[in-house]
Specification:
about 110 residues; alpha+beta; about 20% strand
Length: about 110
């Protein structure tokens, strides 16, 4: 490893609140609709916030420097995610309507 690479601060990434909300929603929809959560997680695309203030520099007790950058959902992924959520919500609504229809027909007997 070259000396220049040794002096470069290690970059650490954290998830934005938007990413965390997406993960929570994916888990909930997966449980409600019995869909494959792993495939949804694999499809997730993140990007580093491009504005410089989003990168924080810290130094630990041993004097090592670190950069902390925030990951956000990639804009292309957000569109696909929103379409998927709309479809999942429609599927969930159909399931609820089907259950209500079944309960109504059962009570008529």
């Amino acid at each position: 490893m070259s000396e220049q690479q040794d002096n470069k601060p290690k970059r650490i990434f954290k998830l934005s609140d938007d990413v965390i909300v997406m993960l929570r929603d994916l888990i909930q929809y997966s449980l409600l609709l019995d869909t494959n959560l792993i495939d949804n997680f694999r499809a997730l695309r993140l990007e580093q916030v491009s504005s410089l203030p989003s990168i924080q520099k810290i130094t630990d007790s041993e004097g090592k420097e670190y950069e902390i950058a925030t990951l956000v959902p990639a804009s292309e992924y957000v569109e696909a995610y929103n379409a998927m959520v709309e479809k999942l919500e429609a599927d969930l609504q159909k399931m609820e309507e089907k259950d209500l229809t079944k309960v109504a027909s059962d009570s008529e007997v």
